[in-house]
Design goal:
By secondary structure, the chain is an alpha+beta fold. The protein has a domain at 45-149. The protein has 4 helices and 6 strands. The protein has a 6-stranded antiparallel β-sheet, covered by helices on one side. A hairpin with a 2-residue loop joins β4 (107-114) and β5. The chain is flat. The N and C termini lie far apart (71 Å).
């Protein structure tokens, strides 16, 4: 018998994949930390990935509106954003801007990230079609979602 064979056998039997043993109960995911009412700004700085990781799938929307007056002209502007995020990471984000110039001046876009592909369209497209963004790889879609979600912060 070769002298290194028992050592090799002992090493092979002692190795594991590092996972839990078969039949071992899985531990429940950690609950998100409790909301700290003394630090509300910390919650506003959480990104959508962190919220989805802590709470699971969610839907969020918000509107920022402001008014300005110059001489006798009053302008009311509003910006609306909505994010629907799944716990799996897929999401849809929408942003609308109404510059207060009357009908037809509103603009915006919708972005979807699903199954590793980004899709986008204008809110008021001439053709109404979604277009694939194969070179985006989700970077632009995630940036738009983050900017929309962090509007409140």
């Amino acid at each position: 018998m070769r002298p290194w064979l028992p050592v090799l056998l002992a090493l092979a039997l002692g190795c594991s994949r590092g996972g839990e043993p078969a039949g071992a109960p899985r531990s429940a995911p950690k609950p998100p930390p409790a909301f700290d009412w003394n630090q509300p700004m910390a919650a506003l700085r959480l990104g959508p990935e962190a919220v989805a990781a802590g709470l699971g799938s969610f839907a969020w929307d918000g509107t920022a509106a402001w008014t300005t007056t110059r001489k006798d002209r009053k302008v009311e502007v509003s910006e609306r954003h909505a994010v629907r995020q799944l716990a799996t990471g897929e999401f849809a984000a929408e942003g609308t801007l109404d510059p207060g110039r009357g009908p037809g001046s509103e603009s915006g876009k919708r972005v979807i990230w699903a199954k590793g592909m980004s899709y986008a369209r204008s809110l008021y497209p001439a053709s109404g079609e979604w277009r694939e963004r194969p070179t985006d790889h989700g970077r632009g879609a995630r940036r738009f979602r983050d900017e929309s979600f962090l509007l409140a912060g």
